[in-house]
Amino acid sequence: MAQYGSRLVFPIDVKKKPWEQKLPLHNRWHPDIPPVAEVTVGEFLRIEMVDFSGGGIKQENSAEDIKHADLSIVHYLSGPIRVLDKEGIPAMPGDLLMVEICNLGPLPGDEWGFTATFDRENGGGFLTDHFPSATKAIWYFEGIYAYSPHIPGVRFPGLTHPGIVGTAPSMELLKIWNERERDVEENGLKSLKLCEVLHSRPLANLPSTKGCHLGKIQKGTPEWERIAKEAARTIPGRENGGNCDIKNLSRGSKVYLPVFVEGANLSTGDMHFSQGDGEVSFCGAIEMSGFLELKCEIIRGGMKEYLTPMGPTPLHVNPIFEIGPTEPRFSEWLVFEGISVDESGRQHYLDASIAYKRAVLNAIDYLSKFGYSKEQMYLLLSCCPCEGRISGIVDAPNAVATLAIPTAIFDQDIRPKASKVPVGPRVVRKPDVLKCTYDGNLPITKNPSAMS
Questions:
Q1: What is the spatial distance between Cα 370 and Cα 426, in angstroms, rounded to a whole number?
Q2: Which fold has domain 333-424?
Q3: CA distances (Å), 120 to each of 68, 88, 128, 202, in order?
Q4: CA–CA gap between residue 153 and residue 411 (Å, rounded)
Q5: For 424-435, what is the mean pLDDT?
Q6: Mean pLDDT of 154-158
Q7: Cα distance between residue 361 and residue 318, in whole Å
Q8: What whole-number distance in Å separates Cα of residue 216 and Cα of residue 2?
Q9: DSSP letter string over 238-251?
Q10: What pLDDT was estimated at residue 187?
C-alpha cells in the first residue's frame, strides 16, 4: 500500500527546553554544524520548531520577559537537514535546493503567539526612538483567525509562514559575511548617515559564544569553541536565505535556495502566524511554535544557470521565491504615504527606509484617533496582514513608501468621513498592551507638530 501523510523528521516537545529536545537545535550558521537528519528529494516531510525564543517568552500578563530577553540565543532552528537525490547523491555546492511549502501551522495544544517591542537598550526596533519601552501583546488562534485581548476590536486571518528558511554557508561565504558585518559595526556610525535616524543598535550582530547552540557539537570542546567564535548570527537574511521574514511564503510557496555545502544542510524556524510587511517592531510578527510540511528537489548546477552574482564573487547571489496560491482576501484598504523627510524636517536623498518610517508613523498616529494607544497600533502594524511598498525610488530627492492596511480587520469604520472621528467611551480600546518602563537615557524622538 502507498504511504500517506508526512514523515516526521524533526519532532518538538513544547514542554521541554530547546536543549532537552530529542534532536538538538542550533542558533548559528556554520558549515561544520553537522546535520541531524537525512532526507531524499520527493519525500513529504514534517519539521516541527520552537518559537524563536525557545519558550523564553511566556503566555503571562507581563512584558518583563521581553524587557530582559536574552537576544544572544535567537533564533532556535530545526536542522540542519542533509538532502540527497534519489540515487543517494547529496546536493552539491552550485546546485539550487527547491523547498516547496505544502502545509504549516501552530503545534497542536500550543495555539497562541505574541507580538512585542524590545527595550531600546536591548534590541530596539524600527521605531525604537519613538517607542523605547518593552511591550507585549498575546494573541490566540481560532482556526485561521487571530485575536488579542490586548488590542481589542481587531480580528484577522493569518498568512502563516516560517521567518527563516536557509542553507548552510561555506567557509568562504561565512568569512565574507563576518568581514563585511564587522566593518559596518566598527565604522558604520561614521559612514552611514541613516544610523542617525534609525536608532536601533547594534548595527550588526557579530559572532559570539554567548547563548550559542551548535546542534550535535558538545559545548566546551575545542571544536565548539572554534565554531562558536566563527559562526554567524541568524538575525539578518543573507545569500543563503535565512531570516528573510517574507510573509507570503506560506502554503504552496516554493523557495529556491543556493547550495554552498555538500548536502545543503537545510534549516528552518522562527514560525509566524501572521506578519506585516517590514515586521516593524522587530519582535513583530505573531511569534509561535509550529510545524512545516515540505518537499525538496535539487536543481543540479542551478546557481550558475539561474542566479546572477551581484558582488565580487560567484557566492554573492540571492534566493528566488515563488509565492503560493493561498492568502487572505481583502477588497478595501486604507493607504498611508511617507516621503524621505525625517521628523526634524531634514531632507534625505531617495531614502526608502526614512520614507517607510514616515508611512508607519503616519498610520500609527491616524489609527490612534479611533480609541487605540500608539503602542497598540505599533504592534498591530507589525503583525497584521498590511502591505508595504516602495512606490517611488527615482523622483529625486524624495523616495515614496506606502503602507496599506485592510480596513476589514477592525470592528469600526476607520475611513475619514465628514462626521469626523467617533468620540466617547465606546471607542476607547482597553486594556492596553503589556508595557514596562524605559530606564535608559537615550533621547526620544517627538513630532513637534503632533498632538500627544
A1: 10
A2: Endonuclease I-creI (3.10.28)
A3: 11, 49, 6, 11
A4: 5
A5: 75
A6: 97
A7: 31
A8: 34
A9: ETTEEE---TT--T
A10: 87
pTM above 0.70, yes or no: yes
Alpha helices in 198-243 (DSSP H): 222-230
Distance CA 429, CA 206 (A): 41
State the average pLDDT over residues 269-275: 98
Terminal Cα distance for the chain, rounded: 68
Per-residue pLDDT at 423: 65
Query: Looking at residue 426, what is its pLDDT?
Result: 54
User: What are the beta bridge partners of residue 404?
Assistant: 335, 387
User: Does the pLDDT of residue 452 top 50, yes or no?
Assistant: no
Sign of CA dihedral 252, 258, 262, 266: negative
How crowded is residue 200: how many other Cβ atoms within 10 Å of its Cβ? 16
Per-residue cell: 442: 537615550
Cα dihedral across residues 218, 7, 53, 76: positive or negative: positive
- Decide: 413 and 370 in contact? Cβ < 8 Å: no
- Sorting pLDDT into bands at 50, 70 and 90, what band is 419? confident
Q: Which residue has the cell 495555539?
A: 111
- Alpha-carbon distance values, 213 to 35, 75, 231 (Å): 14, 10, 10
Whose cell is 511549502? That residue is 101
CATH 2.60.120.580 describes domain 7-322: yes
Burial of 4 (0-12, 13-18, 19+ CB in 10 A): exposed
Residue whose C-alpha is closest to residue 36's, from 15, 10, 60, 63: 10
Q: What integer is the mean pLDDT of 33-48?
A: 98
Could you tell me how many residues make up the chain?
Answer: 452
Return d(Cα 163, Cα 388) in angstroms, integer: 17
Half-sphere exposure of 25 (CA within 13 A, CB side): 30
- Rounded to an integer, what distance in angstroms lies between the CA atom of residue 337 and that of residue 357? 10
In the chain, what are the domain boundaries?
Answer: 7-322, 333-424
Q: Say yes or no to pLDDT of 204 above 60.
A: yes
For the chain, what is the radius of gyration of the CA atoms?
Answer: 22
Question: 18: closest CA among 283, 212, 210?
Answer: 212
pLDDT tens-digit series, residues 355-390: 999 999 999 999 999 999 999 999 999 999 999 999
Cα atoms in the 13 Å half-sphere on the side-chain side of 449: 6
Peptide bond into 397 cis (omega under 30): yes
372: its cell numbers: 487605540
DSSP string across 91-108: P-TT-EEEEEEEEEEPPT
